[in-house]
Structures are given as structure tokens and as C-alpha cells.
Amino acid sequence: MIYPLTDRQERILRCIREWIAEHGEAPSIREIGKQVGLSSPSSVLHQLNQLEKHGLISRQRGASRASRLAR
User: In whole angstroms, what is the distance from residue 70 CA to residue 57 CA?
Assistant: First the structure.
């Protein structure tokens, strides 16, 4: 079952969209954390995993800046 996005997930998704529009590539996990106020990379990674489960992003494992918008 897919649940509605949390505020944090919405902020991360918005961050990824805006970063790609401005820089032409996805932000790193640390850059996402800095933009949304999360100091722990594992917290960012957890949220990215949730966004991937929702089908909103896709990621290439082991690659830096590997988040891609699915929609």
C-alpha cells in the first residue's frame, strides 16, 4: 500500500526537481540533506528509498548523484 508523502519527502522531491533544473544533474545525498535540513545521510537515504517505493524517483545503486525523477 502506498501512503501519502510526508512533508519531508515532499521537500526532498522538490529539492531534487529544483536542483536538476538549476544544475543539470541530481544533487548528492549530502547536498539534499543540506537543502532540507537533515544532517544524517542515512536519514536522506531512507527518504530516497521511500520516494523510490512510491515510484517518484529511480536511483542507480552505488553511483553519486544517481537520483532521477520518474514523473
Answer: 5
Contact 69, 28 (CB under 8 A): no
Q: Within a domain: residue 2?
A: no
CATH of the domain at 32: 1.10.10.10
Degrees (nearest 5) of the Cα angle 59, 51, 25? 45
Instruction: Give the pLDDT confidence score for residue 64 in this predicted structure.
Output: 65
Indicate the pLDDT class of residue 3, thresholds 50, 70 and 90. confident
Q: Residue 57: phi, psi to the nearest 5?
A: -135, 165
40, 29 Cβ separation under 8 angstroms: no
HSE toward the beta carbon, residue 59, CA cutoff 13 A: 23
